[in-house]
Structures are given as structure tokens and as C-alpha cells.
Amino acid sequence: MKEKREVFEILFLILQVGITMLVTVGLCFTIGILLDKYLGTHLLWVFIVLGILSGYRAVYLLIRRYIKGSANGRNQPEWAKKAFHSDDEDPEGTGSGEDPR
Prior knowledge:
By secondary structure, the protein is mainly α.
């Protein structure tokens, strides 16, 4: 059951990433079109780039929060412990005390 929950959490994270990118780029695209229409400027590409950059930042923060496990007070998933451990930590929990260097 725990594996099923992790799969659903990852699927929801992927869904959240997609929605975040769509909303940020779409919102900036709409603002750019409206400014071009009412002010007669050519700022659409500036706002598209701004939307992409803000979308990437939002996705980065979302994934970083998920990996650190700070969302809802849950622990890190097992794959994140193995993938993002530092050299000083012992991800397997063997506690051998030996310095691998």
C-alpha cells in the first residue's frame, strides 16, 4: 500500500508541474497580448520569456519542496534518500563508521 501511495504522490506532482507551467506561461501570454492590443507595444515575447522563467522557478521550488519532504510533514521517499544523500550521510543506515575516502 505504501508503494501505491508513493506512485500517486509522484503522479500528482507531475500533474502539478504541468498545470503550473501552463498557468504561468498562459497568464503571461495573456498579459502580453492585452498590453500589445491596448498600448500598441510589442512586448509579447518579453512576457512569454518571463512566463517560462517564472514557470521553471515555480516548478523548481515545487520539486525541491517535495524532495526535502517538508510538504505536509512527511518523510523523504526512499528514492530521494538514495539519490540526494551527501557523502557524510549513510543512506543505507549501516552505521559502519568507516570513512569511504
